User: What shape does this take?
Amino acid sequence: MVEYLLCVVLLMIGVYCVAVKKNLIKIIIGLVIMEYAVNLFIVVVGYRMGGMDPIADPLTSAVYVDPLAQAFALAMIAVGLATTVTMAAIAMRLYDRYGTFDITKIRKLKG
Amino acid sequence: MNVLPIFILLPLGAGFIMLLSHRLGKRLPDFIANAAVFFLVLMAFSLYFFRTPGTVMIYKTGCLPVNIGVNLVLDGLSHLLLLTVNLVAFLITFYSVQYMEKYTKAEKYFSLLLLMIAGMNGVVLTGDLVSLFIFMELAAVSGCALVAFGTESEELEAAFKYLVMGSVASIFILFAFIMIYGLTGTTNMADVSQNLPGNAGHARILITLLLLMGFGTKSAIIPFHAWLPDAHPAAPAPISAMLSGVLIKALGIYALVRIFFNVLGMTPQLSNIFTTLGVISILAGVIMALGQWDFKRLLAYHSISQIGYVMLGLGLATPLGILGGLFHLFNHAIFKPLLFLAAGSVEYSTGTRQLKELGGLRRKMPVTANMSLAASLAISGIPPFNGFWSKLFIIIACIQAGKLWLAFAAVIGSILTLSSFMKIQKYVFFKELPARLHNVGESPWMMLSSMSVLALLCFVIGLFFPVVVSFLINPAVISVAGGISYGRLVLGGY
Assistant: This one.
């Protein structure tokens, strides 16, 4: 149980970082922390107590960890990479325009 | 031979080929994009004659059994959304050909647009939670890149905001999906709906909250709407039309309905939450729209309000309410792109979208003015246009369900919508012409013809609404109202 709670704590650290920090790069890092929290959660959900790595061996009847969850984690790392790269590219262009990463100074929009 | 994967593979492939082949001819990207999306519309429409109503069409990957593999599933609801997405996408691609001449790198624009279409087709077709997430991210990230396409300060800022809020929402959704996976040991929607344990009380509440937050942000219902009024006006006009017209529906409303009705099962408490959020969105969206002076920003606030109607109808969870909600979803996908395209046409000719700087364009741009008038009448619910019938269904469904105050709020929202569109008509197309705009002309023919088709659809759907309802909407209502029997239908299909 405690490992699930730790994932949630890590997720909340990321949410705090995204919501409170004023620097574009720190916001991106906050999102990356959230992604890591979810990836960790995926792997923890797929873990079986005392499980071995999921390579099928017909000779033994050992407990395996869930391979599907690990495949999900890999896919999510790829998706997270795409999001992070897009965000970093936009942050770079914003820096070109405004000369700062401070979101309190990047305020042309109202809503 | 099963054609379902073509809806995802064709736009992906066309987007890829376009980047390789744009050096061969300047007009080649336009042609490839239009041909690909036109083919998809034809296929989506002709599938109505191949799928017997009440059954599902399944594409299995590999030779895995249907409850293990990642399937593509086409049922009534998916089919309605599939037709909507591809129809609107085709008209918008056609419009973009001349609109995008102002921008450079048209091939990148069309490539991203096709990626977005592939993502949305994937979302509405997939029968698996994790691949739904991946297609959702594909559509959202390419949509965000398109919002930032002009790379002006406002566009970049709006795109960053959109991407941050969208990614937080996606992470919540993924968290909920993984909790579902932990509870049931599968991510196949049909299998989940049959295997979700009844005693998963607390976990279920957490999953519901996370999914409501996540998909609420994607569909911009009111407490989660902050990104929409920035992101939608900042994008180029065809992309605004695409985002407002179909993206928030395919990623938000469709996924919400599919998961809450067909996978987790609808409860009375959830129904109350849906209707309350819907009513708050209707009223708050339209009140915020009244104070706007930016043409596209005003339209963006109306998207929030109209999505509120869809949520209200669906939240009632009666057959008539679902019918009204889905019919309004379809209608909104016709008239909201038309309004954004008209705003884009005005911006294309005059170079501004501030209502106070415009005026008297009815004489200079008669076609745009008439199209925008038709869409304004449709969105404010004036008969015989299509918006009238769907709003009427929703209001009657509210009264039937004994919730008079919901019906009252829906009527108030409709009146306020009418007043804010009278403001647009007055400030943009009537009034006298400012001296600065004396030599503006009408937009090019491709933009006008794609707007005309949408306006014609508004009118024709309004006149022949019984045909549209029985042919397009009713199959979708059956598959939504069927609840978690969706799982039995899919698993029993093979």
Observations:
- The first strand of chain B starts at residue 57 and ends at 59.
- The two ends of chain B are 15 Å apart (CA to CA).
